[in-house]
């Protein structure tokens, strides 16, 4: 049974809601990170996405640098950097710089997907023909740049070399789980949008895990969407923003993060509702205690070593309040 000592962390995509601009979204994320640090969250991770009008975290390392200057203890990281969009050397230099600014606080989570559409993939100068198939080689190259410099090594990450910034692999399928196991890296699984593959991926990871210099035993984070409020009714109202977000994703519609609504039935078809609710079935909405109960159940079912929450809440104050309520319940304050 998961204990309340199980670490609690958060994922943020710096959402740009209706009525807000990117600068405000980034300031709201900074305030969220500060509140999360005070509330006892272990990690604050940002996700890289491009060409999405409701996400302001495209320049992930830049945002992390700013938030690092505004916090003091919470771990900061990427959830994740979409490695095929970048040269591994540049990623090593960026996160080596972050580690130099904020020693012992930086995580480097890596994803294989582009985090955008194919036209933007081309704009990022990514080789679209690889389709992420060179991801394992890119991870190995990156690890080499962050390891101590070897004699005769001509190319070094400065800063970065020897800093051993901990790497994480992000997964929404068994592919990344298998790779994380072989590489001996911790796994963060995206249960917040890919629950169908969750248990198979975690089982694959644990059964194939090989110890490494970074990690002696398997370590799994599960990430889920969560919304807490004073009452379950209020939380479910706030969570209609999440429902609309995934409805729009299913339709291929790019919109600013929508405000909550009283009645979703006016916005979607029954088939859409079934699809969205199935995809979001691990989401936890309710009072702080109700969210805690569901998160503990998830941790028990998966054997997760850490729980991470993501929140699609339109109102920045309500988003901060939600995280504080969840933390207070989680740590039984």
Automatic annotation (TrEMBL):
<dbReference type="InterPro" id="IPR036661">
    <property type="entry name" value="Luciferase-like_sf"/>
</dbReference>
<feature type="domain" description="Luciferase-like">
    <location>
        <begin position="14"/>
        <end position="305"/>
    </location>
</feature>
<dbReference type="InterPro" id="IPR050766">
    <property type="entry name" value="Bact_Lucif_Oxidored"/>
</dbReference>
<comment type="similarity">
    <text>To bacterial alkanal monooxygenase alpha and beta chains.</text>
</comment>
<dbReference type="InterPro" id="IPR019949">
    <property type="entry name" value="CmoO-like"/>
</dbReference>
<dbReference type="Pfam" id="PF00296">
    <property type="entry name" value="Bac_luciferase"/>
</dbReference>
<protein>
    <recommendedName>
        <fullName>Luciferase-like monooxygenase</fullName>
    </recommendedName>
</protein>
<dbReference type="GO" id="GO:0005829">
    <property type="term" value="C:cytosol"/>
</dbReference>
<dbReference type="InterPro" id="IPR011251">
    <property type="entry name" value="Luciferase-like_dom"/>
</dbReference>
<dbReference type="GO" id="GO:0016705">
    <property type="term" value="F:oxidoreductase activity, acting on paired donors, with incorporation or reduction of molecular oxygen"/>
</dbReference>
